[in-house]
Amino acid sequence: MSTNSFDARSSLTVDGQDYEIYRLDKIAGSARLPYSLKVLLENLLRNEDGRLVTAEQVSAVAEWESAAEASREIQYTPARVLMQDFTGVPCVVDLVAMRDAMADLGGDPTKINPLIPGELVIDHSVIADVFNVPSAFSINSEFEFKRNQERYQLLRWAQQSFDDFLVVPPDTGICHQVNLEYLSRVVFTRELDGVKQAYPDTLVGTDSHTPMVNGLGVLGWGVGGIEAEAAMLGQPMSMLVPQVVGFKLIGELPEGTTATDLVLTVAELLRKTRVVGKFVEFFGPGVANVPLANRATLGNMSPEYGSTCAIFPIDDETLSYMRLTGRSEHQISLVEAYAKEQGMWHDPDHTPEFSQVVELDLATVESSIAGPKRPQDRIPLRSAKRAIRGLLAGESQEVAVRAGGLDDAGDESFPASDPVAISSRIERDDPPRIFEDDGVDLDWPSDPTDMVIDGQKLTLDHGDVVIAAITSCTNTSNPSVMIGAGLLAKKAVELGLSSKPWVKTTLAPGSRVVTDYFDRAGLTPYLEKLGFALVGYGCTTCIGNSGPLIPEVSQAVNASDLSVAAVLSGNRNFEGRIHPEVKMNFLASPPLVIAYALAGSMHVDLLKEPLGEGTGGKPVYLKDIWPTTAEIKEVVDASLEAQMFKDGYADVYHGDENWRGMSVPEGDMFAWSDDSTYVRKPPYFDGMQREPAPVEDIVGARVLALLGDSVTTDHISPAGSIKKSSPAGQYLLEHGVEQANFNSYGSRRGNHNVMIRGTFANIRLRNLLVPGVEGGFTKRSADGEVETIFDASTAYLAEGTPLVVIAGSDYGSGSSRDWAAKGTVLLGVKAVIATSFERIHRSNLIGMGVLPLQFKDGETAESLGLTGMETYSITGIAGVSPLPREVTVRVEDGANTREILTTLRIDTPAEESYYMHGGILQYVLRQLLDA
């Protein structure tokens, strides 16, 4: 119950139902705040307890200075947590292990449940192995279950064993689209101490594209696994009150443009504006002209321009979408009444205070694609042919990706889409490349390579399209662009066009409702005729699960080292992400994806040249098959209705025969398998006692790694494919896993034995203990052998030697990775001493029981002459409560001893509690044990 210092507790009655609310108008000046900060303000009022959430934090938001840099810290408590399977499995593994620990300590294991709702959608594992056949969906589904049986058994057990934990089974949809269409409440209700409360629906998600739901007025963003676990266990999360950039929309989109064109334009504009770490909020008279599906598309790509969120306030369009997607009339009435009562209903004539205002006239948006490597590099469709030929001719498209930059963080998150937690201090948020068409028709290095597909002699060249994928929640959540694609397919087939035989064509929508309205509109046969048969409901191509190229195409690409292209309706296109053999990747609207499949090449000027020859050899142009806005609207109105969403989600947790038929053990405790290489019981609770042991000094520690500036979590955390020669690869071989079945680190996040072997193993890591060597290597003495960091850690642990890591500035920026902290502690690291920390990674280290120490201003490891070969002792913390603000580090090098004064970066009472207990999981476990 809130301490209610501001006398904000009140009530609201809707349809005869009473709800407790916390009134914003009790806070002087709250009316001037942007919508997003009103959500934060209500969150603090309701959760104020005088200890973790204080009146001072409420005042920090109420007194927000729009021009000030983000500096005041608050404790935010989301209403729920959203997960996908790659990033969600480790969270579930930890909860399951907590149950075991609870039983070992004599407690009731059923007390271990999420304390706020956890919702996990399995969407990251289906691969488009089979395509362009009616059975593609069922075959890909079978493959998916065979590959992921161990992980799915764990999630299926969690679904039936945990309270307040829901799992949406595979082959149902993409988490963000399911969240938008079904899971989100907009206004959340929950009973507390016998009183039913109503408050804004908020969430954190373990996927970077969580802000898609911002289009519905729901505040949410991506976080790492440790923050998500903490939130599920009822712990508030630390954040700085952000700057808020107002994005004013005026006008209307021109005929022929799509939501995809709009979002690519916005991504380009906001990259120029530099919004890293800020909230973006849409306002103005043009907001009413943006359909909700378009709003969701804009929110979805906020990671691509670096903002924490990109939110729309609640208005009539919000209610219309809720009605369309089958939400109850009472819930819709509650949303309207609550938003109006709290001053959170959008008023186009009222401009809140913003830190900065950016304006876009929707009438200036034009048909576009983006690429070939970055989502913000928009290319007008009219200039696409010139741009591609320029790229092939060797013109530079400078991306300047450096460690710590936004692109680097996003690129390294492949394939798990980890949220980005980049430091706003690093000026490497590279602006978009602006493409200007000079009209010059460049020579480009043509290298036609012969191939035979189904008996047909063909040639493949640089710039040809080999993947065309309608995929990703970004666009498949939008009925207008999807129906537009279906109508374009229908007209193309009727005029005699077909997709080029070298193009792999796939359809992977984010929910089953999409195929329902395609069927109702009679568009499915036309899509299938062009090769766009359903391959699965999941992320597929957008996260690199594109499956193999057509074999003959793959051979031609590799034989001549061709620079070929993928065109997809996704949100990320870094080189190598979509497919390792495809160097150029272009983001485009679903209708343009089909158009490029018909053309078969990026060299075709879609606005001037024919896509191909139709019936009777007649040339067919894009303008001949592009549907009008009126045509699209007519079909959407006729084919889409609320009942489809109600029916589609009626059995959303049911799953298919594969899911229901899995052998899942009964009982409150999970039966761990010693043979599993995907899911293993983590050692976080080994030896844990009911009472925390006193904090001890760290004595006689050695340095595992001596690192420079801007070491990101991507350098620290395991990511990407597992190499045969790596410690993780050797572990899998020893456990009978063939290299072909290694899968990625992302898929094996539930097995700590794999993950610790990949920690500090990034090929770009530079450990200064082994100068001139890149990758996960170190030395234990000046004249010792170079060995892997994992092997050195194993040797040190066998000796009982504690370890430290020494680093430079902004340690831990990049994607918000839980394993960057988990792997660190499991390697035996007791403390990290750095010039400065990225805020979230510092918090994660504390959450895993690792001590963060910061050199005094002006001091660095280099200026202090530290070589990393010394012995380190951290003193003055043993038995001390509260912990001191400054800590002495004794450095011994042979006969020489000196002392360095450092700042202890445990900044809040909650963080101190976590550290004193050995980590956040242990802290929560003991709280529940005593409850």
Architecture overview:
With 931 residues, the chain is of the alpha/beta class. It is 32% helix and 18% strand. The chain contains 31 helices and 34 strands. The strands form eleven sheets. A seven-stranded mixed β-barrel has the order 26-29-30-31-34-33-32. Strand 29, helix 28 (818-826) and strand 30 form a beta-alpha-beta unit. Helix 1 runs antiparallel to helix 2, helix 3 (85-104) packs parallel to helix 4 (136-161) and helix 28 crosses helix 29. The longest helix is centred in the first third of the chain and has 26 residues, at 136-161. The two termini are 17 Å apart. 58% of the residues are buried.
Q: Give the spatial strand order of the biggest sheet.
A: 26-29-30-31-34-33-32
User: Based on the structure, what is the oligomeric state of the protein chains?
Assistant: single chain
Strand content: 15-25%
Biggest sheet descriptor: 7 strands, mixed, barrel
Supply the number of helical segments.
Answer: 31
